[in-house]
TrEMBL record:
This is Protein-L-isoaspartate O-methyltransferase domain-containing protein 2. One of its GO terms (molecular function) is protein-L-isoaspartate (D-aspartate) O-methyltransferase activity. It comes from the Eukaryota. GO terms for cellular component: cytoplasm. Belongs to the methyltransferase superfamily. L-isoaspartyl/D-aspartyl protein methyltransferase family. SUPFAM superfamilies: S-adenosyl-L-methionine-dependent methyltransferases (SSF53335). The lineage of its organism: Eukaryota, Metazoa, Chordata, Craniata, Vertebrata.
Length: 186
C-alpha cells in the first residue's frame, strides 16, 4: 500500500485529495513503522553529515589561518568576506595596531556581518575592544579596488573569487605579503 501511495505521487494523472486520504487509510501499522524508521535513519544520517561538514569547515579555517600567518600589527583584507566570521576571528590576532578590512559584494550579507559582530562585542565576556582591530565591513566589488589604495600584508579571497581574477586580487597586496586564493580544480 505504501508503494502504491508513492507511485500515485509521481503519476502523471491528477490525484484528488480524497484518493490520497484513502491511500493513507490503507497503510497498516508495519508500513507506518517502516516510514518512522526511515525518517529516524534520515535524521541520523543528516546529523552525521552536518557533523562532518563542521569538521571540514574547522579544518579549512585552521589551514587558512596557518596559510595567512597572521601576526599582531599586520593589515588584513578579506575579499568576499561573507558573514564576517573570518574577519571577526582575525581581529583578535591582529591586536590594536592591526588593520582589518572586509569587502562583500552583497549588501544584505554585509549588514548581517555587522549585526553578528555587534552581537559578539556586546555579549562576549572575553572581548576587549581596545585589544583588537575591529573589522570594517563594506559593500563593494573587491576586484575593483583602486591601485592607489593602501596595500595590505595579508589578503584572503572568498570562494566566489575565480583563479582567472588573480591579477585583481594582487593589487591590494604589499610586496612580500601573503595572498590566499581558493584553488578551483577543473
Amino acid at each position: 500500500m505504501l508503494i502504491h501511495g508513492l507511485r500515485a505521487c509521481f503519476s502523471s494523472e491528477p490525484i484528488s485529495f480524497k484518493n490520497r486520504q484513502q491511500d493513507n487509510s490503507n497503510v497498516d501499522e508495519d508500513d507506518r513503522n517502516v516510514v518512522l524508521l526511515e525518517k529516524a535513519k534520515f535524521a541520523q544520517d543528516f546529523s552525521n553529515f552536518a557533523a562532518e561538514i563542521r569538521k571540514t569547515i574547522k579544518a579549512l579555517n585552521e589551514q587558512l589561518m596557518e596559510a595567512l600567518d597572521l601576526q599582531p600589527g599586520l593589515s588584513f583584507l578579506n575579499l568576499g568576506s561573507g558573514t564576517g566570521y573570518l574577519s571577526s576571528m582575525v581581529e583578535l590576532i591582529l591586536g590594536p595596531l592591526g588593520v582589518n578590512h572586509a569587502v562583500e559584494l552583497h549588501s544584505d550579507v554585509t549588514e548581517y556581518a555587522k549585526q553578528k559582530l555587534d552581537f559578539f562585542i556586546r555579549t562576549s565576556d572575553s572581548f576587549d575592544k581596545f585589544d583588537c582591530s575591529e573589522p570594517s565591513f563594506v559593500t563593494g566589488n573587491g576586484l575593483e579596488i583602486s591601485l592607489d589604495c593602501s596595500q595590505c600584508d595579508r589578503v584572503d579571497c572568498g570562494p566566489g573569487v575565480q583563479m582567472e581574477q588573480e591579477q585583481y586580487t594582487k593589487r591590494p597586496l604589499k610586496v612580500g605579503g601573503v595572498l590566499v586564493l581558493p584553488l578551483q580544480e577543473k
